[in-house]
Design a protein that fits this description.
The complex is a heterodimer of chains A (about 800) and B (about 150).
Chain A: H1 22-26, E1 42-48, E2 54-60, H2 62-66, E3 70-75, H3 76-81, E4 113-114, E5 120-126, H4 129-137, E6 140-145, H5 152-155, E7 169-176, H6 178-186, E8 190-201, E9 210-216, E10 221-226, H7 231-241, E11 250-253, H8 269-281, E12 285-288, H9 291-297, E13 301-312, E14 318-330, E15 358-366, H10 380-398, H11 402-409, E16 418-419, E17 425-426, H12 431-442, H13 447-456, E18 459-469, H14 477-482, E19 491-497, E20 503-507, H15 516-528, E21 535-539, H16 556-582, E22 590-593, E23 596-599, E24 605-607, H17 608-616, E25 630-635, E26 644-654, E27 660-670, H18 677-696, E28 727-732, H19 749-766, H20 777-783
Parallel strand pairs in A: 1-12, 10-11, 14-15, 20-21, 27-28
Antiparallel strand pairs in A: 1-5, 2-4, 2-6, 3-5, 7-15, 8-13, 9-10, 9-12, 13-14, 16-17, 18-26, 19-20, 19-25, 22-23, 23-24, 26-27
Helix pairs in contact in A: 10-19, 15-16, 18-19
Chain B: E1 2-7, E2 10-15, H1 22-29, E3 48-51, E4 54-57, E5 70-72, H2 85-92, H3 102-115, H4 121-127, H5 139-151
Parallel strand pairs in B: 1-5
Antiparallel strand pairs in B: 1-2, 3-4, 3-5
Helix pairs in contact in B: 2-5, 3-5
The chains are: A alpha+beta (about 800), B alpha+beta (about 150).
């Protein structure tokens, strides 16, 4: 463990505090949804379509209902008949001609037509899980198979899946100046072109999705425990759009959640059907996904086909970038499915560079596959993959060092704020600083010697770069709503200093591995000068906290943490009034530092705990001030944050077998200020591992008939411990200029930079232009001349 | 059928259907929910427990196969006031994030330490082949296990 990460006992901002949540997880005392049970609960099993597209002509439930223990069978049609609405997509994307995107109907469970393998069409509830499974086996649906659209490359030229959605296109979205970009290409001294695929990924959080729905008939109260990254949003959608229950009667609890990576953001059929059925059956109902259901019915990620062209002048300066992408949306628009390949993708195509002219066009295509939505990075890994692959290729074509070509084109520190041609304003950064540090750590100068040593062992060694940028802390609400977002992008936070001086903090963010219970307590402790151990962070329960938007897009600290700072500032202001009154002064004469309100030019001071107590026992108290010492804030950022950095991979390819070994990986990231470096390093490690998985192992594959061929952990390869090296992680710091903590977000960077870096290293090792992800041994072996 | 086994030092005689999996006996009948189910098919290792001193995957064996056995689960190796060295090392090295794979990882890691001498980083990585962590990239898990190996 490096010196910087040693536990010094410090608990403020910047200290590598050991996580408080660990104690329950390492002792088996976590509180995950499947660990919860209710007296009298029923068990749910879903009937799922075995066909990628089929009309449901009828469902015979008689045999299922005859299974001992089966209580009821509910169908998709019954939900529709009950007035349950479609699962909505939360972002209205417009086509370049101004037309609204075309949404397919999306009932929670298929009612008349099932559109992907694994789509639920009925729900069996029973006294035991075994009875529910037997019941589900005994439901007979009469399906008529319909033609299917599976292949993304031909999807827009295939017969329509949905009436009224020509060419299976939800939208053709564009961003940038097409004419100016065309002119740049007309004048270019050199043009590099690439055709790239971004492989479909299946998230695979190790905790499968689960839920437990309850209804109190006496009060009309609904409670839904569910594996959600954003319980506030879940409640809003289920009440306002799906109309399962009124918002004030619906409580969503996301207890300990075992990983999300995006896949638990979305509002799914299963929890919608379970909470609806719990009221119909008037019994608690529990559902836990089996892994095969996770593969079939969790939203998948990525899945792009892209043609890109980069124009350069005679010096190698980038003058134009044209990108044409077809993005697979799956069978339905998932909660944020429309925004991921558009606003979270096209806007990042400037990367770290001063490319003056950029034009991107994205076709969002329906196919008869599972819906595709945000997965760690969400659009930004896809953008980075395009930019960093084509830049590396350009360097090879120009005979330039790939680090030098990047450096020549990077936005310089003095050029911030920098407005890109694709609608973002980067507030700050120092891209060369992270590049230089990464080159130093990897020992770039020593690469040729390492390459020669590998060659002696019959291995081909390659090195690859990715200088990524991402936009995090999605914001501001006004802009997002103008661009089609259905909700705001602020976050809520409340700090209650209790009468005894302990503190209860409520946040609309949700932690499912990120360690907020530790880092948010560090922030509040630092701001209020209250002992870290006296501060409790409470999240994940709409019955306890204000409306919030949850955790995704590396937003929790930048937005949710900033909300807590804003609430702390309000508390300090109120505390000054109380302290001033008690010290017979004016609030302007009182300063606050390290938990003490001090009267200037005196030796008089009061602790924040004394002030809190006085506010709850207001005997000697300002007349015009409310009692109590609790404040809340909703923080709406002014801009995105822009984490950026350099990732460098070194690989060795065994030319006999085609096996790629990731030998070394350096990540130098600029996340702005860091609250807890221990946790930040861990986030990078995990992100890099998922990116390495995308580059060399993971691929969600449907066959031509629409059946998922990678439906288990035996078929869908994920990185295991012996597939990965130790990672070398370091940081540089340019503080974010527009949030009070100067933070940017660190959750996704690893997954954003690493695929491009690793693929650049593999193609460098092999001396080829491209090989599609994942670079499996078979593909690599064929690429280097193995028999085909 | 009745299955008699010792779990975390306590003998239990549990009436279960014959097709009950060991992990369900542990989680449902004994309410020891620290042992998790991640994949149902022995791929992920979240359900790893010790059966007569060796790490096994409880999702893929019948409860009846544990008749007469001594089973140790994550709850049986330590508690917050008295952590097992491996539990303490996982916390010290930030070897967990969401915590879902963690009990299985820790049980597998203890098995590795107990049954190997002179563990190095590569041996540890190979020894974790049967346990998937989706959060940590394994880096800190390897560090945690190394620290226990070096201390013992």
């Amino acid at each position: 463990m490096s010196e910087a990460l040693e536990d010094t006992g410090e608990t403020g901002i910047g200290a590598p505090v050991r996580r408080r949540e660990d104690l329950r997880f390492i002792t088996g005392n976590g509180n995950y949804t499947d660990d919860l049970n209710q007296p009298g609960q029923l068990y749910a099993v879903f009937c799922r379509s075995p066909y990628p597209r089929a009309r449901i002509d009828g469902i015979d439930c008689d045999d299922a209902l005859a299974v001992p223990g089966v209580v009821a069978v509910y169908t998709g049609q019954q939900m529709v008949d009950d007035g349950i609405g479609d699962l909505p997509c939360g972002w209205m994307v417009k086509s370049k001609d101004g037309a609204d995107m075309l949404s397919s109907p999306h009932p929670p469970m298929a009612a008349t037509v099932a559109n992907y393998v694994g789509e639920p069409y009925a729900l069996v509830v029973a006294e035991s899980l075994q009875a529910a499974k037997q019941g589900a086996e005994s439901v007979y649906a009469d399906f008529t198979e319909l033609h299917v659209v599976v292949d993304l490359a031909t999807a827009t030229a295939s017969d329509e899946i949905y009436e009224g959605i020509p060419n299976n296109l939800a939208y053709t979205w564009a961003l940038g100046d097409e004419d100016a970009t065309r002119m740049a290409f007309a004048k270019a001294a050199h043009v590099t072109t690439m055709d790239l695929t971004n492989n479909r990924l299946i998230p695979n959080a190790i905790e499968p999705r689960a839920c437990l729905g309850m209804f109190e008939s006496a009060t009309g109260d609904y409670t839904l425990y569910t594996t959600s990254q954003n319980p506030g949003l879940e409640r809003l959608v289920l009440s306002a759009f799906v109309q399962v229950a009124p918002e004030h009667k619906l409580r969503i609890v996301a207890p300990d959640v075992g990983g999300g990576f995006g896949s638990k953001i979305f509002i799914y059929a299963e929890e919608t059907a379970v909470i609806w059925a719990a009221a119909k059956a008037n019994r608690p109902i529990k559902w836990v996904a089996e892994r095969s259901e996770s593969f079939l019915a969790d939203a998948h990620g990525r899945d792009h086909i892209t043609h890109a062209e980069l124009a350069m002048d005679e010096m190698g300066r980038f003058t134009g970038l044209k990108v044409q992408t077809t993005a697979n949306l799956g069978a339905y628009l998932s909660t944020f499915g429309s925004s991921v390949p558009t606003y979270l993708y096209g806007t990042l195509l400037a990367g770290q560079y001063k490319t003056p002219n950029i034009y991107v066009e994205v076709q969002g295509a329906y196919t008869n596959t599972a819906p595709v939505d945000a997965y760690r990075g969400a659009g930004r890994p896809e953008a980075t993959y395009v930019v960093e692959r084509i830049v590396e290729q350009a360097a090879r074509e120009l005979g330039k060092d790939p680090a030098d070509l990047r450096r020549m084109n990077m936005i310089q520190p003095e050029e911030f704020p920098y407005e890109t041609p694709v609608a973002l304003v980067y507030d700050t950064g120092n891209y060369e600083a992270s590049l230089d540090k990464a080159l130093d750590i990897i020992d770039y100068a020593g690469f040729e010697a390492r390459r020669a040593a590998a060659a002696e062992q019959g291995k081909r060694r390659g090195i690859g770069f990715a200088c990524y940028i991402e936009a995090c802390g999605l914001a501001p609400s006004k802009l997002a709503i103008e661009l089609g977002a259905g909700v705001g992008l602020y976050e809520s936070g409340e700090i209650r200093v209790n009468p005894t001086g302990s503190v209860s903090v409520f946040t609309g963010s949700h932690s499912h591995g990120q360690g907020h219970e530790t880092t948010f307590a560090q922030v509040v402790s630092d701001k209020l000068g209250i002992n870290y151990d006296d501060i409790d962070i409470i999240h994940g329960d709409t019955g306890r906290m204000d409306f919030g938007l949850g955790t995704y897009g590396s937003r929790s600290l930048a937005v949710g943490g900033s909300a807590l700072v804003a609430a702390a500032d309000k508390l300090i202001e109120k505390g000054k009034k109380i302290a001033a009154h008690m010290m017979q002064a004016t609030p302007e004469q009182v300063t606050f530092e390290d938990g003490q309100f001090t009267l200037q030019d005196s030796n008089q001071s009061m602790s924040i705990q004394e002030v809190a107590f006085a506010s709850y026992v207001p005997a000697d108290y300002p007349e015009d001030l409310e009692p109590g010492f609790a404040e809340k804030a909703f923080y709406d950022p002014n801009n995105f944050t822009y984490p950026a950095g350099t990732h460098i991979a070194e690989v060795e390819v065994d030319i006999e077998t085609g096996v790629v070994s990731l030998e070394d990986f350096v990540a130098v990231d600029d996340f702005g200020h860091i609250i807890n470096p221990l946790i930040v390093h861990g986030q990078v490690h995990g992100g890099v591992a998922q990116g390495a998985g995308q580059a060399i192992m993971e691929h969600g594959i449907y066959d031509e008939y629409g059946q998922l061929q990678t439906g288990s952990m035996m078929d869908y390869t994920m990185p295991r411990a012996d597939d990965l090296p130790d990672f070398k992680v370091d940081t540089t710091v340019t503080p974010c200029t527009h949030n009070p903590l100067g933070v940017k977000g660190c959750g996704e960077a690893g997954a954003i930079g690493s695929p491009a870096a690793i693929m650049n290293a593999i193609t460098h090792a092999l001396g080829i232009k491209d090989i599609s992800m994942p670079a499996t041994p078979e593909k690599v072996w064929r690429a280097i001349g193995g028999n085909s | 059928m009745k299955v008699t086994l010792t779990v975390n030092g306590t003998e239990h005689a549990v009436e279960v259907p014959a097709n009950t999996l060991l992990v369900d006996l542990i989680r449902v009948n004994l309410q020891l929910t620290g042992t998790h189910v991640g994949c149902d098919t022995t791929q992920c290792g979240a359900c790893t427990v010790h059966l007569d001193g060796r790490a096994v995957k409880a999702c893929s064996m019948l409860a009846a196969q544990a008749e007469g056995a001594h089973v140790t689960t994550i709850e049986g190796i330590g508690d917050p006031e008295n952590l097992h060295p491996m539990q303490a090392a996982f916390r010290e090295h930030h070897a967990l994030q969401c915590g879902f794979c963690t009990p299985g990882m820790i049980m597998q890691a203890i098995d590795l330490i107990d049954n190997n001498d002179g563990l190095d980083s590569q041996t540890i990585r190979e020894g974790l082949e049967g346990n998937i962590c989706r959060c940590t990239g394994y880096h800190n898990i390897v560090r945690a296990i190394e620290s226990v190996a070096n201390a013992s």
